[in-house]
Amino acid sequence: MPESRQHCYVLLASRRAVWKADSKTNTTSLQNQFGGSDYFSPTEMADGRKTAYVKVIFLGDQSVGKTSLLNQFIQKRFQKKYKATLGSDFFVKEVRVGETTVVMQIWDTAGQERFRSLGSSYFRGADLCCLVYDVTVGKSFDDLDNWKEEFLLQAMPPDPERFPFFVIANKVDLPDDQRMVTSSRATEWIRRRPNFHHVEASAKSGDGVDQAFLQMATVALERNREDRQVLTPVQVRDVDPPPSKCC
Amino acid sequence: MMQKDASSPPPAPGAGANVEPVEEDQIRYLEQCKVNVRQQAANMVRAIDAGDLEEVLKFANLVLGELRTSLLSPQKYYELFLAISTQLSTLESFFNDAHSKGKKMNELYELVQHAGNIIPRLYLLVIAGSIYIKTKEAPAKYILKDLVEMCKGVQHPMRGLFLRHYLLQLTRDKLPDDSDQDKSGGTVRDSVDFVLHNFIEMNKLWVRMQHQGAGRDRERREKERGDLRVLVGTNLVRLSSLEGVDEALYSDVVLPAVLEQVVGCQDCIAQQYLMEVIAQVFPDEFHLRTLDTYLKTLAHLEAKVDVIALMVTLVKRLAKFGLSQRAKITDEMRLFETFLENIQPIVEHRSDSISTVQVLQLHEALLDLVLSVYPERLAYIDQVYARTSATLEAMNVTSIEDAASVKILKRMIMLPLEAPAPAATATGAAAPPRNTLADVLCLEKNVDLLRLLTPIHKKQVALSITRSAIERGAPIPDPEKIDRLVELIRPLIKDEPGLEAEADEDKEEFEENQNLVAKLVHILANESSDMTYRLFYNIRRHFGQGGFKRVRHTLVPLFFASMRLCHRVYRTEQQEAAGEAAPAAEPRQFGSIKILRFLLEIVNIIIKAFPETGLRLALQAALCADNCNSSEMAYDFMTAALLAYETEISESRAQLQAMQIIISTLQSTKNFTEDNYDTLAKKCTMLSSKLLKKPDQCRAVVMCSHLFWTERPIPATPGETAPEWHDGSRVLECLNRSVEIADKCMAPNVHAPLFIEILNEHLFYYAKNVPEITADRITELVNLVINRVSALQEEDLPAIMAYKQNTLRHIRWHQASPREPAEADKYAAIAIPH
Ligand SMILES: Nc1nc2c(ncn2[C@@H]2O[C@H](COP(=O)(O)OP(=O)(O)OP(=O)(O)O)[C@@H](O)[C@H]2O)c(=O)[nH]1
Ligand SMILES: [Mg+2]
């Protein structure tokens, strides 16, 4: 498990380093790291380390534990009290994947449809979508396909059939007799979907949580790198005009 | 209600207000905005790299200037907002950097306010303010207060809402909270005040949207408001995520302030949404504490607000909570009572706008709550039922027929009988104990709800209840419960007015249903035979009212169950008498005789409806009574069977069959007194000789002869061994009578076989050494048979010939190979002509 620092401001510092790197190498396009359909590639640091920015969207039914997983990952805390999420909210945290520092921008969303009124434009530009279900609620597993469809519809990745999804089976701390979705059923389901990854976790005990996020970072980073290659021609259209107007 | 707006919104660049461009124009416009944003952001970054603060602010202004537009719908504006706010994160770190290089934050905070336009200016102020808080150059609380005040500068609803949303977003991790080490920035109270203030301002902006623009745009406006609502609601999320907001602070400060705004704004959309958000974003523990306040507030909401939906949301939430954390809900919380008390006035007050289905939804949720939180309090269930029917009655609802309502009503009646769904228990601890069938039968008010259903739906409920009762198989502890059960499933037990129309319901379905009802008998059997008897007795009363078509299905199984009970009781009686079993602690009330009498009652009812079945049951019961050493009851059953035979069975084949089983039953009894047996046997012989057809008479009378030569022991008088029942003269009498009858049959192909049969009977008795059956008599019969067979027509011959030959061969075989010397003489005495 690589070290992972916890507060957001690390991000700001590293971004600063990015601008420096950019200006040094005279890159004209300064991409917004997470924004819109702009992709950002890992950047070589002065000291040889790389930093990459990835965007992850969390989706899943009401009360499956999306917010709890994020809280466990970022603050190492768990709350038994249920507080519904409204709209969407993002958190930032960085993890190390090999030589690369991956800055993850993670969007938590509301599981309840009527609490998501402003649309899902922030799905665009995501590198990974994380679908969460509650192993004690069969319906939350059954709904995964709907969430996947909804994501693809809004995020519009150029290669939907290859877009990586990460499935978290949450609440595995609860006793077996309450479990409604068995591991084997989930594994079978995942097996039929090559672009899906699957882990079991408990936001309550913390089991599997760090590993899950680390794996997500790895998958997202890979996607991010691939994008750069695959999507370069597409990206050209999006590139900013030459900085002639600039002073 | 029109809010006054002192500061008019800033003019939108390049567009007349309130003209919504078509979708494609919006997309194009948004793309243009985003291109501009990227361009200016790039410039801004270059300025940042150059360290030129003034230039940085200039370009930041240009980036933010795009947010002044009025051309975008909320969703598109949000997209723009997201694009811009991500770009601005570089500005945050620039300010941060500037601070670390020695720039004073208060100067920066002043400097950003020089921006010309209010929108960019306030966004910049928010960024500077958030960094200002972070650097701790001034206490957070003052900066927060200033920011939330300054944002009043934007009074255009949508732009104002997003600006304040941004404020909320940037300050999210900077709000003073109880867990802070350093308290210099302020306390959680300051944060609460800040968010509440922001919430109130945002809600005002949001509500004001409703009153702007032309009336014809209302639909569009409401759609836009719907899209924007989440921005207002986020304030409440923020409040709920503050750690320092505990139950006390919530109930004393937060909730009252929020509710005051919600009620005060007098806006239907806001009230509906915000009340729901309150219920959803704050934890259950808080709601438990403030339930009364929340519910009382509902009474003050606008008439068009769907308060029922709000109550249902809250009740459902707490029901779910109760399933997993029942222990946390104490009696002092008066959860159930509080709901009941508050629901009543609200529903009454709004009775003209509330529909039946709403009333049902609400009470259904309440029932779910009771079953998950107070699974053992049956009285609560009845209270919910009583409330439901009273409310509906007050609304003059006398019958419920629409599908949605019927579905809920059925579920409400069935709910206590059903196990909690596994999914519902998934959230936490073990499932609540299941009510037993007996518990459910203690309920009284479910009938009042049942009454509202149409006959056909009543019947469906009755079936569900019956199935569930059988599935549970729980013992029923007292006879009165049977009455309650029957009340619930009445349409299956007897004809009801209203169902006659479909009385010709599918015969198969009817039988299936009745067989289901009959299975109820099986769940009655009980440890205590007395109780079982009383339960049987009670259910018999009800089954008895079912009319002929039902008793066949219901009373027959009850008959057999009672017979089993009778055997069981008799066995115990025997064991007790023999000292093998200790007598029951409580003296037995209902002995085997009593149960036999009960059987007789059942038999008599069945005989009336279905004589043939009844007759057979009477005979079964006769054997049972005989086995239980109750010859009197056995006699009564035989008499009942004979009476049924005489009065109810008229078809000749049925008569013969009935007579045959009556005779064989009588023959297998063991305990009749001589007198009784004699009476019955004579009666059988008499009835046999009166059968409709001669051959039948003949055969039955032959059969009767066996009644007088049996292995049946006559009841032993003490000290004597029981003799067998051997009365040769009566045997002879029967056989003579049968010959007479056979002789009266004219057709040779009819009487020939009869004679052969009679000959065979003679041979049987001859073998048994019945003195009255002599060799001469047999010789005479043999001649008669040969004589009659020879008169037969060609086509009848083979079978009868074979029969005759076999019989004669049998005699010859005895003559040829006697097993003992005496037998040789005995069979030699029979002369067979060649
Ligand atoms: N036992 C157990 N409970 C959990 C776990 N994760 C979450 N919970 C509980 O499940 C409830 C819902 O958790 P949230 O994280 O708020 O769920 P969510 O997916 O964010 O829900 P929405 O915001 O409504 O979409 C809370 O009461 C949590 O305490 C877990 O791993 N184990
Ligand atoms: Mg959540």
Molecular structure report:
The complex is a heterodimer of chains A (247) and B (834). By secondary structure, chain A is of the alpha/beta class. Chain A has 7 helices and 7 strands. The longest helix of chain A is centred in the C-terminal third of the chain and has 22 residues. The N terminus of chain B is likely disordered. Chain B has 5 domains: 138 residues, no CATH class; 123 residues; 152 residues; 153 residues; 65 residues, no CATH class. Chain B has a two-stranded antiparallel ribbon with strand order 1-2. With 834 residues, chain B is mainly α. Chains A and B meet through α1 of A and α1, α3, α9, α11 and α18 of B. Bound molecules: guanosine-5'-triphosphate and magnesium ion. Guanosine-5'-triphosphate binds next to α2 of chain A. Chain A: This is Ras-related protein Rab-7A. Chain A: InterPro entries: P-loop_NTPase, Small_GTP-bd, Small_GTPase.
